[in-house]
Amino acid sequence: MCGIIGYVGHRSASKILTDGLKCLEYRGYDSVGIAVLNGQNLEIRKDKGMVADVSSGSRFDSLSGSIGIGHSRWATHGGVSKENSHPHSDCTGSIAIIHNGVIENYQELKSSLLSKGHKFASQTDSEVVSHLFEENLKQFPTPLIAFSKTISALEGSYAIVLLSKSSPDVLFLARKNSPLVVGKGAGENFCASDFSALLTYTREFLVLEDSQIATIDRDSIALYDLLLTPKTPSFLTIDWDVQTAERSGHPHFMIKEILEQPDVVSAAFSADVSQVLPLLEKFEKIHIIASGTSYHAGLLFSILLNKYKSGKFANVFIASEYQNQVLPDSNALIFAISQSGETADVLQALRYSTSPHKVCITNTQGSSITRLCSHSIYLNAGPESSVAATKTFLAQLCVIYKLLFGDRYRDSIRSTILASTKHSAKIQEFSKSIITNRFIFFLSRGLCLPLGFEGSLKLKEISYLHSQAYPAGELKHGTLSLIEKGVCALFLAPKTPDATKLFGNLKEVKARGGTIFTLTDDPSFKSESDMSLDIVPQTDPLLYPFSFVVPLQLLAYYSSVSLGINPDRPRNLAKSVTVE
To answer: Does the global pTM surpass 0.85?
Structure first.
């Protein structure tokens, strides 16, 4: 969830660090800080709050020096405070560190350091790293060896960048189960938790592997394992256009990303699935692991596999519950879905699985998930800055349809998505009625059920309205007791063989005073609705899920905006959930 940025070169470090932290705001954070080293003068400035406010109030721009580190924190250990903000220092003020992840044995390490006279300034797990390095500098001949000994003592997950007066021109990096990349420049080098923070400066990246250490100075990048055996860096080129990470004149990233989705269809269908198709044909037992929005894509995947692929038995699992529900099965084909490739729950489930056949579907090259899987399928959706996933969700569905049906439906899907983006005004008006309700049920059946779950999630996460998605047939098994005046039911009602049963569910809600809203192409549903949005095009029954993707995203977006909420930065949420 946190953001990391580091720089060493010939420019003002404070400016690059501040700009990088702004690029990483989408990850979610509650405090920010930077450390800049100028000769033997190491200065740390940090506080709780937003980048713009803290950088201005703490005068980040007054720090001189061409090497430094910056961090945006999402509180885990210790509350939201200036003291718990990163960077953290040691007893001497000679070291600064930033850290993403969780140091699981920090209490044991902290107790040992306290017994040696170290004084701690925060309640975080991260601060032990700076003090441990301080201690190791006393015992080992070089800062690099001291750093490797420090990292080797840590248990848990980490992306760490360390700056020390003992090596005033070098940044020390380490990574395990938390993303960290190095950007290669000319007379300057960079590091960050995300490619997007560095695209202004470079397109050449080294992605650190788990349990690797790196050092960067202005002219060189060196890579090692934990025993300091040198490794040959392998660089990849990221061809994202910097402009795709900006709003391009739209009021929010979310609406920009929703409207980009017709092009996302084409990009997602260009994904290379050739090596995965033989596995999909070979295996009968398939486990799909995902969280949040990706889980909804996985749910549709499992339904399609079970219904349309003879002999397949597919289960979809919420990643955090995977090891609580199944024994490790080496005979199952695993599909892991994560837009960031860094979702902690998904990574842990993959580590639990004993299957040698693991396929990831992700948007991020070089992400942690790709290292745990035998095959990777990339969504090609480009950077997604809004916390709420939109175009990556659509890309996941497109990749799933390509796996199951090839390119057969690509053009039809793109046409559906393109047509849906033309209905913003109607959906904006529709949202004004939705937000007047204190509780909203999303009700659907069949292939549209996962879209009901996704629509409900989108609405609640960015508008803070209380909503819940159900299979419509479950109403009479308990939930119908909640239906009364003031309760809204939103039906996803395509004209399919399930329409008659779904219509019966609608009548049940109406008979109990519930307010009826529908997204439909069926006149019978429209006639029974308090308000209907008849923008759903009639299509192949297999493709109806795509008819609801954009309308539900726009409904959530306009509901959020109407309520005065920033849809890009919903409270308490982050783009990439990197802590379990």
So the answer is: no
